[in-house]
Amino acid sequence: TRILKTSYHSPNFATKEFLNLSHVDFNDCQEMHRNELNELQRWVVDNKLDDLKFARQKIVYCYFSAAASIFSPEMSDSRMSWAKNAYFTIVIDDLFDTEGSVEELEDLIHFVERWDVDIEAQCCSESVKIIFPALKGTICEVSEKAYAKQGRSVTDHVIQIWLDLLYAFKKEAEWRRENSTPSIDEYMANASTSFALGPIVLPALYLVGPKLSNETVHHHPEYRNLFRLMSNCGRLLNDIQSCEREMKEGKLNAVPLYSIEKKTTKEASIEQIRRLIEGHRRELMGMVMQKSAIPKPCKDVFFHMLKVLHLFYRKDD
Questions:
Q1: How many Å apart are CA 37 and CA 34, to the nearest integer?
Q2: Per the database record, which ranges form the Terpene synthase metal-binding domain (predicted)?
């Protein structure tokens, strides 16, 4: 047995050359990540997004989630798309959670729907005048890079992803304005979009490498299910951690909605929601591991995001 084992032993295993190469590769990757973060911080300033005082400045967190999930050097475009779009989801969410009005949300929706808009000629708030051009520029940038990899235009799809999120934000705003209490099913149907992972993950998939056909991204049930499972896990993880604060603020949250509908205590609701999260996680893992029409590198991104969500919402929101 010893002779058979040693016959397969490589004399070059763990040599200094390999260790030196791995050290150089690690340093090169870290340098690339530092450069990308510096570029993102300049991008925030160049687009005057730091002038939006109501918004949490979370570009470092956004980039960390991207770099921790898709870290290899060749994934630079995908990381940058992830980080920029994640930053916009926070800014726009903060706008309508703090000082924003329904009119501002409707203006932003209107401009994204029309697309070719001279924003300076429009009657809208300064916040919208800052956000829309920067968002449009990012969508165009991501779509242009995706065209080089996909061999087709994905601009309309990326715009629609953003519109879906804005429509979901509008639905939540209507519930708040009307003091309406949706059922848990109605809440989760909207929350799978309003949790805002669509603009973060879906455009980034176009930049991972494998080609995704128009048929796949619009009609393949597995693509939709991967997104639904990931988003629902994220929404529920967040709601468990934020339920005390949001209940005091009068905001909608899955925990009290579940308690009302199922006539259970908060503690029992949280326990049941944790079981739902675990079920969704296992189902998503099974889909990622199985061979299918969705390329494995793309399915991995859904699972990587799910791991980030568990990290971010382990203790608080």
A1: 5
A2: 48-282
